[in-house]
Amino acid sequence: MNVGLKTLILPAGAAATAAAARALADGALVAFPTETVYGLGADATNAAAIARLYQAKGRPAFNPLIAHVGDLGAARQIGLFDAKALALAEAFWPGPLTLVLPKTADCAVADLATAGLDTVAIRIPAHPVAREILRLFGRPVVAPSANLSGHVSPTTAAHVQSDLNGRIDLIVDGGAVAVGVESTIVGCFEAPMLLRPGGLPRAEIERVLGRALVQPPVDADSDSGQPLAPGMLASHYAPRATVRLGAMRIEPGEALLAFGSHPVSGIDAASAVMNLSARGDLAEAAANLFGYLRALDTRGARTIAVMPIPDDGLGEAINDRLRRAAVGRK
Ligand code: TXA
Ligand code: MG
Fold first, then answer.
1. N or C: which end of the chain has fewer CB within 10 A?
2. Nearest CA owner, ligand 1 atom 15
3. 155 CB less than 6 Å from ligand 1?
């Protein structure tokens, strides 16, 4: 890896996707856009490349990664699909859904990527740049969000650069992403479980399953010693600033992260104001969420006050990320 050197950035296109596929085959680390957030890719079958990926992110090595593949055939080589998993795959792939499945006997994904679990997380992304890289590369690509561990996820190439410049080999710049929050993760266990709310609303998944998704046990993280979705550690999404939720008035000097058009008292004394969606659109708010948190953080606000956001549809994922941001960095 290029540690200390400048990371190459290429605009998305045939030359960039070809360079990305070659770099992955060489064991290099490549950031690329998916429809949810930018991912930091490595060859899922190459344990040395995956070790460098954990290092570049500063990520605890017990935290398993999502294997990204180009089509259902490739997914079935690494994960065992039952009827429910297949129904979800057919309804929502390519798209912002990750399925956690039992590994196949000859699953090529390195143990380091699955943190030694006997399950594997799989996703077929919808972004054309991600799809083209996966097609050219022809093997599964593990890709966590392309940020330093504990920072908010990147939704532009510039975010990736500001966290990982000099720590990774290549960034493919495909512009701002469409969804803005990470994929929804469903554990395909006896009773399908919502491991992480995300870019695909729960209700759409439940409609296809014909039943409600069960919730993970409340303190799965501490009880079993083997977390179900260990990336969901409470402090995962922390910006530098203190985050205060449900704010209907703001204190002098606070930055305001607004939603909708409700009036907020004290707004004149705010150090900065950004509105996730003035028209109250949750999809627009999700797409803006991480970029606005970064922007307010960069301006040096001590506290970011966040207005209440409805919990339906994509609001569940937005509020989940905001609660984690409010816990603060550990
Ligand atoms: O939208 C996304 O999912 C993005 C883009 C790049 O695809 N990726 C992403 O990856 O968010 P990451 O590494 O930041 O989050 C992966 C999550 C973590 O919470 C991890 O614990 C969970 O998936 N995970 C991975 N394998 C798992 C497994 N076998 N069982 C349970 N959870 C798993
Ligand atoms: Mg992440």
1. C
2. 144
3. no
CB 126 less than 6 A from any atom of ligand 1: no
pLDDT digit string, tens, across residues 260-279: 998 899 999 999 999 999 99
Closest CA to 79 of 127, 34, 44: 44
Cβ-based burial of 58 (10 A; exposed 0-12, middle 13-18, buried ≥19) = middle
Q: Is 287 exposed, middle or buried (0-12, 13-18, 19+ CB in 10 A)?
A: buried
Query: Which pLDDT belongs to residue 229?
Result: 54
pLDDT at 230 exceeding the cut of 80: no
Tell which residue, 67, 50, 65, 49, has the closest CA to residue 107. Answer: 67
Nearest of 212, 219, 244 to residue 233 by alpha carbon: 219
CA atoms within 13 A on the CB side of 73: 3
Strand, helix or coil at 307?
coil
The angle formed by the CA atoms of residues 4, 10 and 11, to the nearest 5 degrees, is 150
* pLDDT given for residue 88 in this prediction: 98
Look up the pTM and report it.
0.88
Contacts of 3 (CB under 8 A, 6+ apart): 166, 167
Count other C-beta atoms under 10 Å from residue 265's C-beta. 9
pLDDT at 220: 45
**CA angle (179 as vertex; 177, 185 as ends), nearest 5:** 120
- Asked whether the predicted pLDDT for residue 219 surpasses 70, the reply is no
Q: What does the block give as tokens for 180?
A: 């803005």
Q: In ligand 1, which atom is closest to the CA atom of 125?
A: 7
Cα 84 to Cα 192: distance, rounded to the nearest angstrom: 8
Amino acid at 112: L
Q: Which atom in ligand 1 lies closest to the alpha carbon of residue 59?
A: 13
CA angle 19, 21, 27 (to 5 degrees): 100
Among the listed residues 24, 23, 122, the one whose alpha carbon sits nearest the alpha carbon of residue 67: 122
